[in-house]
Amino acid sequence: MNATADGLSVEKVHVWRGDRHVLKGVSLNLGPRQLLHVSGPNGTGKTTLLRVVCGLLRPEQGLVSWLGTSIASVRTEYQATLAYASHEPALKADLTALENLRFAVGLKRRVTVDELRSCLERTGVAVCADLPARVLSAGQRRRVAMARVLAMNASLWLLDEPFTNLDGAGADLMSGLLQSHVEQGGAALVVAHHDLKIDVDMRRLDLGP
Amino acid sequence: MNVGALEAFGLVVRRELCLSFRRPDQLLQPLVFFLIVTTLFPLGLSLQLSLLRDMAPGVLWVAALLSSLLSLDALFKSDADDGTLEQLALSGQGLTLIVVAKTFAHWLVTGAALVLVSPIVGTALGIPGSAFATMMLSLGLGTLTLSWLGAIGAGLTVGLRRGNVLLSLIVLPLAMPLLIFGAGATDRAISGVSATGALYFLAALCVFTCTLAPFAATVALRITLE
Amino acid sequence: MWTWFYKLASPPYVYGAAAALAPWFLGLAAITISYGLVAGLAFAPPDYQQGDAFRIIYVHAPSAWMSLFAYTSMAVAGAIALIWRIKMGHAVAAASAPIGASFTVLALFTGSLWGRPMWGTYWAWDPRLTSELILLFLYVGVMSLRSAFEDPARGDRAAALLAIVGLVNVPIIHYSVLWWNSLHQGATVAKLGKPSMPGSMLWPLLSMLLGFMLFYGAVLCMRLQGEVLNRERQAKWVREAIKS
Amino acid sequence: MSNGFWSMGGYAGYVWPCFLFACVVLAWNLWAARRYHAAARMRAARALLMAAGDAS
User: Fold this and answer.
1) Is C71 a residue whose pLDDT tops 90?
2) Residue of A nearest to C149 (CA)
3) What is the pLDDT of residue C186?
4) Which residues in D lie closer than 8 A to residue C239 (C-beta atoms)?
5) Which of A64, A103, A157 to mutate to test the interface with B (most CBs of B within 10 A)?
């Protein structure tokens, strides 16, 4: 168990929620060109683990480090390099898909509208760009959220159940995007309860009891 | 390629303003509430203009505090409910900057709007035009300070289901100095006495709160985001 | 130094220390409060202005003092817990709140009963009593915030932050109420407690003050045991503590 | 002395309720603290029992 200096490392993380011991000493390593598939039944702390890795939740015990330094000491810089997609699409219903992207991605890096449009095109929702998020279907919202991840140009992707609400074509598209991200040197941590069929350096962490 | 703090601040303020103007009803509700409450007082009291004028500063200020508080509940809640607050927190800009921008934008659409309609209410309550400048200045300082106090309260109650009542319960005691100095300043301006003392106090409170409250509100949000 | 600090903050140590200290505090409080009561009610001379009504000060002043003291210790314990992530600080803060609130109620009750013969009304918006009332609201806010959270750890931290914000505000509230009162009240009215007091009046007061502090310590220790157990339900040491 | 002591120079109606209420508050504090501790013990004991049940 040695911290990888070129990626993400989680060492013996413990989290309690009230009386519930949600994460019991979870450890993982994730370097560039790698994909880690976190699986396990409901209530085993998959989302909690993701929130710990993001730095949103500080674990009671254990250490999360990025490029060899603890994320607690470089939180904002670290968070600038990651793209997180929670299990809800996190879109403002009153804003259009494009505006949603502009306000979310614009805080991470300077981005042009054309770039954002091309990201929406890559996830197959270019037609939705100027529609308010409230009229989009669940699958379309998921694709917009994926376009946001793409547009952030982040080296670390943290995705919580990215395949929910996607049809077969959407799932294939998602797998393709993950594959090209990892092949281009990125790292991805994907929480999914079913098997992933992606042809990259993929490992699996089962949080089951 | 990195986004500077000022640019990020502007972007978040634009986002908040954009969201508010997409929902004009929510923008108007606190203002209408303000007007209704100030109408209730004269109806509940006997219609003696002299009595009304004596009560005016208190009525105006209580109504202003309550209507600003009404909208503060939504400051972080709507973003927390749809998950965008997490995205903002992870934007790599530091949560304090986000909190500052959001609170400032919130004040622009509630507090500043309230200051602009206050002359109408003031006229109805019999406040002379000569006191309007002081009244508006004190309301501006007071609502800005309240927005900051409210940001702490909103951060603390964001994850709670019935957070609205609790928010009032924890913010109103903290807001009492505002009421005292704000109504005091307005009162003095009505009776033609110099109100600078009270205004200085209000300004001092405003500066003090603006300096410390962003950090407290950030800590509050971090606690409830976990 | 830090190991000592953390040992002091370890739950079994806190639990044991609280259990050991509580009877001592309680016994000493009983002695000092009895002396204060007897000397204050029977032997101190009546005040030349307020007559025997001034004797209310023997419960009013200590309870008003304790209401502030308990709030301060709650906020300081919360700050320590928040900054160094020491759970026991939250336990102290949580134990402190209801005691402080009860002292605040006592101070308000005795203050208004004293006000009736002095001002002719139970509630004259005296600045000190008004500040005391706002302090009660602050207590209520902190306690309701703590219980509003399903996850006790989050409730603890939220309450600690609110207590700190409240503590910063207490002096501001007090002085603004003073300023407000000086605007609205012309002549100075009789105040409870005067700067100079003869020893026969002062000693019972100091004794009551000390007694209330010790009593607070005793009740804090008793409540603290409960708070520690609630926070450490799954810990191994609790098993032994419960069995005994 | 006894008569004057109990009448408190005419302020008996104010002084004695204050001291009575003070006693009530002090007693309530002791009672509530005891009850709180006892309830916490009960809950901890129940949690231990349940943990023992899980283990067996």
Assistant:
1) yes
2) A18
3) 43
4) 48
5) A103
SS3 A13: strand
A28 and A75 in a single domain? The answer is yes
- For residues A36 and A112, state if they share a domain: no
Nearest beta carbon to residue A108 from set B15, B92, B94:
B92
Residues on chain C touching D34 (C-beta within 8 angstroms): 222
The chains found to touch A (3+ Cβ pairs under 8 angstroms) are B, C
Sheet of A8-17, strand order:
A20-30, A8-17, A61-66, A69-70
pLDDT digits (tens, 9 = 90+) for A45-97: 888 999 999 999 888 888 999 988 888 888 888 998 899 999 888 999 999 99
Give residue-wise pLDDT tens across range A159-182. Answer: 999 898 888 899 999 999 999 999
Q: Read off the pTM.
A: 0.91
Is the confidence at residue C188, as pLDDT, over 90? no
Q: Are A15 and A45 contacting, i.e. CB atoms less than 8 angstroms apart?
A: yes
Interface of A with B in 145-164 (CB under 8 A): 148
- State the total domains in chain B: 1
Q: For residue B44, which amino acid is it?
A: G
pLDDT of residue B2: 74
Chain C residues touching residue A16 (CB < 8 angstroms): 153
Averaged pLDDT of chain A: 88
Tell me which residue in C151, C233, C234 faces A17 most closely, judged by beta carbons: C151
Inter-chain CB proximity D15 and C215 less than 8 Å: no
* Annotated domain spans of chain C: 49-243
Domain that holds residue A12: 1-81+155-209
What residues in C contact A18, CB-CB < 8 Å?
150-153
Separation between Cα atoms, residue C34 and residue C58, nearest integer Å: 12
* Dist CA A112 CA A102 (whole Å): 8
What CATH number corresponds to the domain at position A169? 3.40.50.300
What ipTM does this complex have? 0.90
Same domain as A64, residue A36: yes
How far apart CA C216 and CA C162 sit, in angstroms, is: 22
In a domain, D31, yes or no: yes
C-alpha–C-alpha distance, residues B160 and A110, integer Å:
35
Mean pLDDT highest for which of A11-25, B1-15, C209-223?
C209-223
Tokens of A3: 């911290």
